[in-house]
Specification:
This is Alpha/Beta hydrolase protein. By secondary structure, the protein is an alpha/beta fold. The protein contains nine helices and eleven strands.
Length: 333
């Protein structure tokens, strides 16, 4: 239950260069706030400007190599033409903390008795319940739309966050329905809620054995897709079905853009995770890398960090800055 009905005004940091060319929206984790999170991001020292990021499959060790002439010492200097926005999560009663009042982006809990703590592991989707996630996504979409209008398109806007803030960002990116895709979405020690249920639409779209009549009835509604002449229409129908299911689950309004109207641009995805994270296991983040390509977001980078727990390390933040800068540079061409 939300104690605050409205979202507070975000903290906004203008571009250091004085030229507003891009916007990055970053969400704090559960139990934190925009003041603390922005201070952590903006005061972390980076010795020099990171090299342009590449997919780790190409062999580049990120977070350890820097441009020899780079001068940036922090996140803002690495992205001098970028406005940084840090929204505030609303104060809500957190079920996993015995209904204590904290700032969070949504209240999540589990029907399974062995999932009663604030831990996301391989069983996270089992019986998952969420409250206010749809309201958070709608709020983020409003922020994105405002910045896209100012900048001339959503390809100049990126979204991301830490832990639960990252989870909300990933859902918001999937459900964004503007004329242009977002430039990028970043999850730091994050996970994708409902990824198991969404993947089931792709893995067994017509497998009904009578065990669950409700599921079979729902799937029957989409059997017509198998009659389509276009070989890609089945996949498009499955994507639509999965996203519509997610919107309904989190109580979001239906997408206003026709399915046939594909948005311009591509959204790049960066998922960063500490290998020693005992609160959101790294495997949860890794599994999300398999989900995004199913929805057409194929530019996915997965990074892990030795000896890093549920936190943002210096190398992780360097990778995020490099990833965003490289993406923005590519959209400027």
């Amino acid at each position: 239950m939300a104690i605050e009905n409205a979202f507070s005004q975000p903290l906004v940091f203008a571009p250091l260069s004085g030229h507003h060319k891009h916007t990055v929206i970053l969400l704090h984790g559960r139990g934190f706030n925009a003041d603390v999170f922005s201070s952590q991001i903006l005061t972390t020292q980076m010795s020099k400007l990171p090299l342009p990021i590449q997919n780790c499959d190409q062999g580049l060790e990120l977070g350890s190599q820097y441009a020899s002439t780079g001068l940036a010492t922090n996140f803002r200097e690495a992205l001098p033409d970028t406005k940084l926005i840090f929204p505030w999560g609303r104060k809500q009663r957190a079920t996993v903390y015995k209904r204590s009042i904290i700032r969070q982006w949504f209240d999540d809990w589990h029907l399974s008795p062995n999932m009663t703590t604030d831990v996301a592991d391989l069983r996270y989707d089992e019986g998952l319940q969420t409250t206010a996630l749809g309201e958070t996504v709608a709020f983020l979409h409003t922020l994105i739309a405002k910045e896209a209008e100012l900048l001339g398109g959503a390809q100049k806007v990126a979204l991301g966050g830490f832990s639960q803030g990252g989870a909300a960002s990933l859902v918001a990116a999937l459900l964004w329905s503007g004329e242009e895709q977002l430039a990028a979405v970043v999850g730091m020690s994050a996970w994708l809620p409902y990824q198991k249920q969404m993947m089931e639409h792709f893995d067994s779209p017509s497998s009904c054995d009578g065990a669950n009549s409700l599921d079979c009835d729902e799937l029957d509604l989409f059997e017509q897709s198998s009659l389509a002449d276009d070989s890609g229409s089945d996949h498009t129908s499955t994507v639509t079905t999965s996203l519509d299911w997610l919107r309904e689950e989190i109580e979001m309004p239906a997408c206003g853009r026709p399915v046939s109207q594909q948005p311009k641009g591509t959204t790049s995805v960066l998922l960063c995770h500490g290998k020693q994270d005992q609160q959101v296991y790294a495997e949860c983040g890794r599994q999300a890398t398999e989900v995004f390509p199913r929805f057409g977001l194929e530019d996915v980078v997965w990074r892990t960090y030795e000896d890093v727990e549920h936190e943002i390390s210096v190398n992780m933040l360097c990778d995020v800055a490099t990833f965003l800068r490289t993406k923005f540079e590519s959209t400027n061409r």
